[in-house]
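Anyone up for a design puzzle?
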């Protein structure tokens, strides 16, 4: 009960400030540039207090909290503006871990050659390098060069290879690794024997994935309802429902959202602040459709809220006591969006990066610690 009340208190603060939802006026003047250039990206990920992005030229950049070296610049100095990480220009995808309680986060990324890299906190082996030693700069994980996708959760990591196999490592006290045990792992272990995994997302307490036949699977702690209609913990992948048309998904603190191939949006789990978007505050143990629209393109879930983009390029949000989807601004060129605990980053179709919400650690990248109530364009300042 104490943790739930803590969530409510933080969410209430964010709701009052109007930060994470991005629907209030700015409380800080817009960056005027002064020689700055737009930060144009092809991939971005954000966690509790830091953001990492890959520019279209393949270079890697990071900013925000760096207490555990999660930015990867070789230091533990917080950065309030984007700084380049290393000199390589062959980064393909990136994922940032989450830990709202202590910010003990980590970052994982894949290069275009299929190699996997990680850095930051490594208390329970979440980097996967066979140790529990934190890393201030990217280190390669193993020698394989066939990694396809990777997702960082709260102190654990899960990834797929090009052969369709699924691998996990790090914290496992909530059975979130899915290997049938509760033992932490400091190097990748295969989850099951399947070779048909195409999409996986790591959360705080549970994991959700999609197979190539369109079926949906979940495992881990189930107190929030992973979607199987029960609250029974699952030690290994368990199929959710019988639908075979799941396409993408996102996990919040204790809720899950997903999109089917027909464009319909579904959600389940904790709903005390309307983070599911079904117009109620009723928790759901199984997927329920959100709104009647069938034109959802992408979705991302934060701690107590959800943000999504429709096929027309409009941006929508709900949660933090907003029980139904509400549109953010009038722009119709949003491409994809990522929500964290208190801030959001999104990319428009021209590749420009925008951010809003909480900025205690400089995670918005505007060179300050001022919060932002509406989206602003992230810039690179010489």
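Challenge accepted. My sequence:
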């Amino acid at each position: 009960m104490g943790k739930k009340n803590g969530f409510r208190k933080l969410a209430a603060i964010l709701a009052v400030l109007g930060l994470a939802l991005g629907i209030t006026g700015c409380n800080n003047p817009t960056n005027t540039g002064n020689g700055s250039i737009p930060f144009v990206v092809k991939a971005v990920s954000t966690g509790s207090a830091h953001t990492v992005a890959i520019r279209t030229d393949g270079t890697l950049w990071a900013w925000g909290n760096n207490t555990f070296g999660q930015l990867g610049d070789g230091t533990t100095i917080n950065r309030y503006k984007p700084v380049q990480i290393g000199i390589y220009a062959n980064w393909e995808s990136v994922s940032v871990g989450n830990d709202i309680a202590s910010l003990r986060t980590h970052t994982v990324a894949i290069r275009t050659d299929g190699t996997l890299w990680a850095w930051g906190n490594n208390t329970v082996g979440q980097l996967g390098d066979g140790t529990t030693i934190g890393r201030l700069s990217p280190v390669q994980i193993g020698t394989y060069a066939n990694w396809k996708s990777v997702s960082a959760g709260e102190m654990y990591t899960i990834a797929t290879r090009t052969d369709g196999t699924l691998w996990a490592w790090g914290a496992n006290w909530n059975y979130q690794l899915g290997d049938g045990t509760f033992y932490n792992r400091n190097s990748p272990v295969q989850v099951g024997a399947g070779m048909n995994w195409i999409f996986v997302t790591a959360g705080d307490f549970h994991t959700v994935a999609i197979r190539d036949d369109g079926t949906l699977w979940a495992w881990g702690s189930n107190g929030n309802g992973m979607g199987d209609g029960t609250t029974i913990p699952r030690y290994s992948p368990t199929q959710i429902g019988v639908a075979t048309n799941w396409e993408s998904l996102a996990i919040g603190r204790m809720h899950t959202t997903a999109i089917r191939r027909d464009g319909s949006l579904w959600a389940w789990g904790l709903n005390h602040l309307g983070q599911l978007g079904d117009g109620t505050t009723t928790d759901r143990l199984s997927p329920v459709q959100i709104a009647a629209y069938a034109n959802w393109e992408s979705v991302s879930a934060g701690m107590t809220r959800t943000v999504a983009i429709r096929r027309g390029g409009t941006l929508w949000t709900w949660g933090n006591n907003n029980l139904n989807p509400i549109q953010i601004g009038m722009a119709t060129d949003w491409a994809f969006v990522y929500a964290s605990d208190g801030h959001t980053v999104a990319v428009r179709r021209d590749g420009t990066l925008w951010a809003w919400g909480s900025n205690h650690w400089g995670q918005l990248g505007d060179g300050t610690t001022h919060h932002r109530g509406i989206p602003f364009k992230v810039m690179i300042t010489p």
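A detail worth pointing out: The longest helix spans residues 2-17.
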